[in-house]
Design a protein that fits this description.
Blueprint (H helix, E strand, L loop, with lengths): L1 H13 L2 H15 L17 H24 L9 H18 L4 H6 L7 H18 L3 H26 L19 H21 L4 H18 L2 H21 L4 H23 L4 H4 L4 H5 L6 H19 L10 H7 L18 H33 L10 H31 L7 H19 L13 H40 L5 H14 L4 H17 L5 H21 L4 H13 L3 H14 L4 H13 L3 H14 L4 H13 L3 H8 L6 H4 L2 H9 L3 H21 L4 H13 L3 H14 L5 H13 L1
Helix pairs in contact: 1-19, 2-3, 2-6, 3-6, 3-19, 4-6, 4-16, 6-18, 7-8, 7-9, 8-9, 8-10, 8-17, 8-18, 10-11, 10-17, 14-15, 14-16, 16-17, 16-18, 19-20, 19-21, 20-21, 20-22, 21-22, 21-23, 23-24, 24-25, 25-26, 26-27, 27-28, 30-31, 31-32, 32-33, 32-34, 33-34
Length: about 775
């Protein structure tokens, strides 16, 4: 074996395999900046899942090659630094938090929508180790930054296409999201590249006009993302960089004037905007109006404060290691504040980096995360404030050249300090994603490099002993086996499952095809199954309602849903969302006793969440238990009377049980609002109760409402149909005919369905 190994060793050396491995790793690193452009439409959540899988595959490949190189030659091992130690400590703490958290499975794998969790952090850590081990020269780092700005230019091109209306904005509205699919993600991406281009502008003499152009383009796209946290972070970072450069160059009048003017100009612009925030110009701008609306009373601001309060309550319960990565949903449910009814029902992030890590990994997690930033600031600050000795050369030109080089280095370091400050500040209002994490770890690795140098280590060729050579070959084989296993288990298997989810939710002439796809997803047993189970519930309901399908197929869907959700609850028994979804499904299919168990458990896990209580009240009505339903509705209403749905459900319950006076009392504050008279449920239950007076009142209000709409916007023919329906209900048939005739006369070819409805109503009259 050793003879064979020696022959292999000399052959590999002859092939210069180390150099090949090195450049393959560098190629893999160079592909990472292009991942923001990658959108995988063959997977669910195409802007998230494709990027994450591609990143993991690249990292696993280059990390495996690096492991072999590091064992082979010491020069490929990283230099020691406090940044490396802090990153490793952070990963250790998060791993412990995952193991001892409330849902280790979810903390490790996350879900298909987010794709973060411990597995992503471990890949980022591996990526960081490769960066600090391979990129050990200024030239290699310069190449990586050029590659990143090249990829950034392509993303910006996409963003400008959206701005000009050539490309679609994926989130809708006017906030640009480019190929990242989220305006906040794009904003953070542009924020990083503003500072990266600014750093290169100061540090390198060539291509400076390109760096200026990059800064301007990124600022434009960042502005039109209308992401307040990132823009405020940018302003704060620029102010910090300008301020410290002003202090550092106070004794140099020319430079001092430049930075003092820049600093004051930014402050004046902020002051002018604040003075003009109520003007028509600001209020008419979709972007500026978002900033002008910032206040302590704004809905988004208030919801942030409420979420932070919930996070604080959760932290006090588990202060050391927290609840585990990605498990804020448990805290959100347990400490839910009824005032949150204005926001989305399921928050899984605190939207604040401090509280996020207090929940994810407790005080140890937060301190370990902050230590990374602290040591990055420490190394940059030390480099920034350290004075360089003037050259002893007698020639003034040489001295001036060294002084200029020193100034450029200080300016670049100041920009990096501003970048870290901007990144941290914006994270007080949003949360990280793969793109921002990747850029953050690249910057950290570069700070490590400029702080401790390349450290080539032992660059001399090494003559291996027989035992060392055997260990190298065994290690390489083991790394190769682990690489194949990780690529399959961590990537290829869930990718296949993700593609099957897409197949499962498509529409086919035969629903048996959907069933087959769902069965393939669940057979793989990956973290993708959680998302597939939620999709399965809605598909099963539509299948069960379709009497044209065979009873066997409907039974198969129903049984699959029951089987898979039994597995879901076995793994996530304390998850309020899972309990709610499954309980609602069981209620819809008539399995009332099982529905009651799950909805009561959901209420127990989140006692103040109105959504669960309202569903439970509806179930009580279905089970012919009106007293329990009304008690539930009353308690839910009293949790937060300002919640319109709770008020309306309580009133509807009162109508159902015949308590008309109570219903009238509850409705009184909203009787003239669209919330009330446009809700068809009131028409249905007033009709069931034969309350003609209330029905007439609703139709009168509807007729007036839609009459105003048809006058203000006569091109919207849907409003004419709604007006005609109200007029028919009031017995105003002559007026209804006129409204319907407008539709028949003006309806276009694509409005054929609307025209048919109008003709049928006219025929009925």
């Amino acid at each position: 074996f050793l003879d064979f190994a020696k022959k292999m060793w000399y052959s590999l050396n002859h092939m210069n395999l180390k150099k090949i491995f090195h450049w393959l790793i560098f190629l893999g690193i160079g592909l990472v900046p292009f991942l923001p452009l990658f959108v995988s439409h063959s997977l669910l959540f195409p802007f998230i899942s494709g990027k994450n899988f591609a990143f993991r595959i690249i990292v696993e490949l280059i990390f495996a090659l690096w492991l072999i190189l590091a064992f082979w030659d010491k020069k490929y091992r990283p230099q020691k630094s406090l940044i490396i130690y802090s990153v490793l400590a952070f990963l250790v703490v998060v791993t412990l938090a995952t193991i001892f958290g409330v849902s280790p499975y979810h903390s490790f794998w996350s879900n298909f929508e987010r794709m973060d969790g411990l597995i992503s952090l471990l890949h980022l850590g591996a990526f960081f180790v490769v960066l600090v081990s391979i990129l050990k020269s200024e030239d290699s780092w310069l190449k990586l930054f050029y590659v990143s700005l090249t990829a950034n230019a392509l993303v910006l091109f996409y963003g400008f296409g959206q701005l000009l209306g050539v490309a679609e904005i994926h989130q809708g509205g006017v906030r640009l999201d480019a190929s990242l699919g989220n305006a906040a993600y794009l904003a953070t991406y542009c924020l990083f590249h503003v500072f990266i281009a600014g750093y290169l502008f100061f540090r390198h003499r060539s291509l400076r006009w390109l760096f200026v152009l990059s800064i301007i383009a990124n600022l434009v796209i960042l502005y039109f993302t209308a992401t307040r946290g990132a823009i405020l972070g940018l302003i704060g970072g620029v102010l910090l960089a300008t301020f410290i450069l002003l202090l550092r160059n106070w004794n140099q009048p020319k430079i001092r004037k430049i930075f003092l003017f820049s600093f004051l100009a930014i402050l004046i612009l902020i002051g002018l905007f604040w003075m003009l925030k109520d003007t028509a110009f600001v209020q008419s701008s979709p972007v500026l109006s978002r900033f002008a609306s910032i206040s302590l009373t704004e809905t988004t601001t208030q919801s942030r404060f409420l979420i932070w309060q919930m996070a604080w309550q959760g932290f006090k319960e588990k202060p050391i290691l927290g609840w585990g990565p990605g498990n804020f949903g448990y805290v959100f449910a347990k400490h839910y504040n009824p005032l949150m009814w204005r926001q989305e029902p399921w928050f899984d992030r605190v939207h604040n980096i401090i509280f996020d890590w207090l929940i994810n990994a407790g005080l140890l997690g937060l301190l370990s995360y902050l230590s990374i930033l602290f040591f990055a600031f420490y190394y940059l600050g030390r480099k920034f404030w350290r004075s360089e000795k003037d050259s002893q050369e007698p020639k003034n030109k040489q001295k001036n050249k060294l002084r200029e080089e020193e100034w450029r280095e200080k300016a670049g370091t100041g920009v990096l300090l501003g970048l870290l400050a901007a990144y941290f500040f914006q994270n007080l209002f949003v949360f990280d994603n793969l793109t921002s994490y990747t850029l953050f770890f690249i910057v950290l690795a570069y700070v490590h490099f400029i702080s401790v140098g390349g450290g080539e280590g032992n660059a001399k060729p090494k003559n291996f002993s027989d035992n060392e050579l055997a260990r190298l070959l065994v290690t390489s084989t083991l790394v190769g086996v682990l690489l194949v296993a990780s690529l399959y288990q961590l990537n290829f298997k869930p990718i296949a499952a993700g593609k099957n989810v897409i197949g499962a939710i498509r529409t086919y002439p035969d629903s048996a095809i959907n069933l087959d796809y769902y069965q393939k997803v669940f057979a793989a047993d990956t973290f993708v199954s959680g998302e597939a189970r939620e999709q399965l519930l809605s598909k099963t309901l539509s299948v069960l309602d379709d009497e044209n399908l065979s009873e066997n197929l409907r039974n198969q869907f129903g049984q699959l849903a029951l089987d898979e959700w039994s597995k879901q609850l076995e793994r996530f028994s304390e998850d309020t969302r899972s309990r709610f979804y499954f309980g609602s499904f069981l209620s819809a299919v008539g399995m009332f006793d099982q529905a009651l168990i799950n909805l009561q458990k959901a209420k127990e896990l989140s006692p103040q969440k109105q959504m669960t209580r309202l569903e439970l009240a509806t179930l009580h009505f279905k089970m012919n238990k009106p007293d329990l339903a009304m008690a539930e509705l009353k308690e839910t209403f009293e949790l937060e009377p300002g919640y319109p749905e709770a008020r309306k459900m309580y009133a509807l319950g009162a109508i159902i049980v015949g308590e008309s006076e109570l219903a009238a009392e509850i409705i009184e504050p909203i009787k003239d609002s669209e919330e009330y008279f446009l809700d068809d449920r009131f028409v249905y239950y007033y009709n069931e109760a034969n309350d003609r007076a209330k029905l007439n009142d609703i139709h009168v209000k509807r007729a007036g409402y839609y009459s105003d709409l048809t006058q203000n916007n006569p091109e919207n023919l849907e409003n004419f149909l709604k007006l005609a329906e109200a007029q028919i209900a009031l017995g105003q048939n002559v007026e209804a005919k006129k409204s319907l005739q407008v539709i028949i006369d003006l309806a276009k070819e694509e409005q054929k369905t609307l025209k048919t409805k109008a003709e049928n109503l006219l025929q009925t009259i």
